[in-house]
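[audit] Reproducing an earlier prediction to check determinism. Same input, same settings, fresh worker. If the tokens differ from the archived copy the diff job will pick it up downstream; this log only records the rerun itself.
[audit] input (290 residues):
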Amino acid sequence: MKISALLARGRPAVSFEFFPPKTPEGEAALVRTIDALRPLGPAFVSVTRTGGKPREATIELVARIQALGIPGAAHVTGVEATCDDIARVLDLIAARGIENMVALRGDVPPDPAFRRPADGFRFAADLIRFVRARAPGLCIAAACHPEGHPETRNLDLELEHLRAKVDAGVDVLITNMVYDNAHYFRFVDRVRAAGIRQPIVAGIMPLTNLPQIARIAKLCGCSIPTTLTRALEGAGSDEAASTLVGVEWGTRQCAELMRGGAPGIHFYTLNKSPATRAIFENLRAERLVE
């Protein structure tokens, strides 16, 4: 089922993101983890592409997830790809019955000798435009950055790039990690004022230990509220206490997002489900999800 159709049901949708493990044993364990989440009724599960795995690995893992009865979405990056590379990926996506793609530029390789292919994709919008022309029935999701892209931190430029993605044919937008809901709501107001109407799903990754803060802030450029930092500092090395802090914060944050009109919550799980599952169960207890 298409993500756009799932979000149109009128109830906040909850989804999960995973990445392909490096070994067959790891992949089998991940499929078991995802199967264990099935009773929660996730709207969809997305699978990222990692540099150490071929593009096809993501597609095949999404196909395995869909065999569990859960709609899947395959991440496709364009920074290193040629048009032929993406065309082959789209053929495989169609062959596996996958209806959803998350189209991303991807990280530019740190190798100073790296050069984009002559017929490659400079921006995510270029990739989206190619995909939309070749696979018009595919539901395309794309990333957005409420605090500005980590490479620029420029909100006006972010809105400009977002407009280009929408004009290229994107159906759904998913934010990078947000820990202060004010950033999400201000971003939505700016986007709507610009005439962009695509649903904007809030991306959340539970913070369950202090070392994650610096790593996540560097990775995506998001700000971490001082209150959350101090709570994790207070938990110290107590793993259970730190997890409780992350779950309580995540529950309050997600509840406020849902009550404020967010059409969905997309959990970046890092292939770990306990904190995400606990937040989901709390939201269910508050009757915010089915």
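[audit] rerun output stored. Observation attached for the diff report: The beta strands are 13-18, 44-47, 72-77, 100-104, 139-144, 172-177, 200-204, 264-268.
[audit] end
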